[in-house]
Design goal:
It is a multi-pass membrane protein. The protein is built from 17 helices and two strands. With 482 residues, it is mainly alpha-helical. The chain has one domain. The protein has a two-stranded antiparallel ribbon.
Length: 482
């Protein structure tokens, strides 16, 4: 009598845990790009925090980093902010510095771009929705139901090229900036290894608009050095204009393809704000002996220009921001709140958001129904996104300012400045952030950095994706405005 063996389970009927996890990630990636981006960034912050709390991450100490400082530094690095509650030049060990460098590099890539890369790795393919995920980091309106001008940023068929451009442009720019910085550090007295390591650290910090400085004395030692300040300004500018603009400029150089409205608005608005900040800072601080007034007259324009550039999101400074006049702090508040370009390493509400608001105001003043820029019509749904982003940013800043004011009892101008710097991921500080900052305030500012880096992008993508068609329109009635 023969005995029959029970057949084992077929592989396709009982998928492995890895396959189930991969399927879950694919489903989340394609169904909710914004939610997936938030999960990715939050997970990266938690991992970085865990690594920074290890005793090996702290220099000269057997005990680990306090949780509040580890969280604050992790969020500041991943969100490429640059604010710090510890001395970045001496607090961290080589292991801790490597963790921070990796966090800055990952954070500088971008929320949705990073999420799309991880989704592509896990899913091993890139379908239409996954391409929309990557494209949303260059233009949230791309997931809108209506027509979108593909010349603004990058076509869906070029998403693979976009991801390669993001990675390669970041690496190439950082290496070039490092090569320009290292000789200057050698002349300053750094040994070769320190010059290379700290030069790369500083180049990465500048291009990602983070603002961490790895050596004692900060950038103040180079306050009269046009070479160093010029190189750092170029790095910050390239990081702040955004990868879509870099991509568009590369296509213009190769094929003389017309720059889209997004690229032209970004470059024009960036130049205007840089010039306004340069003139305002120079005029308001010219006689302030604690800042520009204490420098040689020929050096003051350089400092004013560098400060204007850094206020866009760079976070580096050659003067004590806390010693500036209240009027200057207000100018910097406005520049920081605007920030840099969309899909860039900079923060803020973005320069194109401000440009769209001004285009709307200009159209209203002229009495014309359409917003126009560079021979193109800007649709109304873009204005709705811009207004939503500004209100979202103002709400975050107001809420965080009230809470930090209540906790610290510090003057309003100092608190408001550091809160806006946190929201806009700028990194400039009046001195509020530091070892003496109360732990609850550290967590509030960390949450503000997270919301500023993740919130505006994902909100724009979520709003653009949430618009649905309906077969009716309600009766119109105009409220009184103004």
């Amino acid at each position: 009598m023969s005995t029959a063996t029970r057949p084992g389970p077929r592989r396709d009927q009982s998928p492995s845990a890895l396959r189930r996890a991969r399927s879950a990630v694919v489903a989340l990636t394609t169904s909710s790009p914004a939610r997936f981006a938030i999960l990715v960034f939050t997970a990266l912050i938690l991992i970085t925090t865990l690594l920074l709390t290890l005793p090996i991450a702290r220099a000269g100490e057997r005990s680990g980093t306090p949780l509040a400082d580890a969280v604050f530094t992790a969020v500041s690095a991943i969100c490429v902010t640059g604010l710090s509650t510890v001395d970045m030049a001496s607090y961290w060990s080589p292991f801790g510095n490597v963790v921070i460098v990796v966090a800055m590099q990952v954070g500088g890539i971008g929320v949705l771009t990073m999420a799309s890369i991880l989704g592509l790795i896990v899913a091993r393919r890139m379908g239409l929705r996954a391409k929309l995920l990557a494209a949303s980091d260059t233009n949230p309106s791309r997931v809108h139901a209506g027509p979108v001008s593909e010349s603004q940023a990058v076509r869906l068929g070029e998403i693979g090229t976009l991801l390669a451009t993001v990675a390669m442009s970041a690496i190439i720019i950082e290496l070039v900036i490092t090569a320009l910085i290292v000789p200057r550090l050698l002349l300053e007295g750094f040994d070769p290894w320190s010059a290379v390591w700290q030069g790369f650290y500083l180049a990465l910090s500048a291009f990602t608009n983070t603002g961490f400085v790895p050596f004692d004395g900060g950038i103040a030692r180079f306050e009269s050095d046009p070479w160093m300040l010029g190189v750092l300004s170029i790095a910050v500018f390239l990081g702040a204009i955004g990868f879509p603009v870099i991509f568009a400029l590369a296509r213009w150089v190769k094929r003389r393809q017309r720059l889209g409205v997004h690229a032209q608005l970004t470059l024009a608005t960036t130049g205007i704000l840089l010039a306004i900040g340069w003139v305002a800072i120079g005029a308001l601080e010219w006689s302030n002996q604690a800042t520009l007034g204490g420098q040689e007259p020929l050096n003051r324009p350089l400092t004013a220009f560098f400060t204007s550039m850094m206020s866009r999101s760079g976070g580096l400074s050659t003067v004590d921001i806390g010693e500036m006049n209240g009027s200057t702090l207000m100018v910097l508040d406005m520049l920081m709140f605007v920030g840099g370009g969309s899909a860039s390493t900079a923060g803020g509400i973005k320069v194109t958001t401000l440009a769209v608001l001004f285009l709307a105001a200009y159209a209203e003043a002229r009495g014309v129904p359409d917003m126009e820029a560079f021979g193109r019509r800007v649709p109304v749904d873009v204005l709705r996104l811009a207004v939503s982003i500004v209100l979202w940013g103002a709400t975050i800043v107001a809420t965080a300012t009230i809470i930090v004011l209540h906790i610290t009892k510090e003057p309003l101008d100092r608190v408001l400045f550091d809160v806006i710097s946190a929201f806009a991921t700028c990194g400039l500080s009046t001195g509020l952030t530091g070892p003496d900052l109360e732990e609850p305030a550290k967590y509030v500012l960390a949450a503000t950095m997270w919301a500023g880096r993740v919130g505006t992008v994902t909100l724009a993508a979520a709003l653009a994706a949430s618009e649905r068609r309906q077969l009716f329109r309600r009766p119109e009635e105009r409220p009184i405005v103004g």
